Amino acid sequence: MNILFVCRGNVFRSLSAEYCLKKYLESVNIKEIGVFSAGIEAIQQPVPRFILNQLSKLEIDASGHKQTKLEKEHLIEADLIVSMGINHKKYIERNFNYPSYLFNEICYGKITSVLDIHDAVPGWESRVKESRNHMKWTINYIHSSMPYFLENYKNFVFKLRNSTRL
């Protein structure tokens, strides 16, 4: 079983989801699920130190993360594709003809995005405090959602296996 998380740059939301799920799976002694992440743009950039520090506070080490650009091979390898935002879901459907499910849809039954910094904090580059608060909140939200994700993800794998590609 392989789960793929997708966002835009693969340095914030999908990265956080990947490492939070890996940590949660380890804590409940589940070893048969592989977890990875990618970004639809993934312009080469380092993971912001603030994000690594926030994950570290949750005892999650993502310092070895390598940013990955989404390719069709990643989708082929995945049993479940999880989009962090509605725009990622649409991109995957339009460009690769693959279905995916939203993170919030799997965890909470909501067709909503986990917002990126630029969506949640207009003018985020000059609003450092608000940007950091959003990043911290988002990482904690993703982390605290993992029990719900694990409880519900099989329903979405079942849907994928019983449907054809788009």
Biggest β-sheet: count, sense, barrel?
Answer: 4 strands, parallel
Specify the overall morphology: globular
Instruction: Report the CATH C-level class.
Output: Alpha Beta
Assess the beta-strand content as a share of residues.
5-15%
Number of strands: 4
* SSE string: EHEHHEHEHHH
**How many H/I helices?**
7
- The residue ranges in which pLDDT falls below 50 over 5 or more consecutive positions are none
Please tell me how large the radius of gyration is. Answer: 15 Å
Overall mean pLDDT score?
92
In the CATH hierarchy, what is the architecture at level 2?
3-Layer(aba) Sandwich
CATH superfamily: Response regulator
The strand order across the widest sheet is 2-1-3-4
Brief characterization of the structure:
The chain is α/β, with parallel strands linked by helices and 166 residues long. Helices cover 51% and strands 11% of the residues.
Question: What descriptive keywords fit this protein?
Answer:
166 residues, alpha/beta, Rossmann fold, four-stranded parallel β-sheet, 7 helices, 51% helix, Phosphotyrosine protein phosphatase I domain-containing protein, Ptyr_pPase_sf, Ptyr_pPase
Overview of the molecule:
This protein has helices at residues 13-27, 49-57, 72-77, 86-96, 103-108, 117-120, 128-161, and strands at residues 2-7, 34-39, 80-83, 101-102. The protein has 166 residues and is an alpha/beta fold. A 4-stranded parallel beta sheet has the order 2-1-3-4. Helix 1 packs across helix 7 and helix 2 (49-57) crosses helix 7. The model has no long low-confidence stretch (mean pLDDT 92).
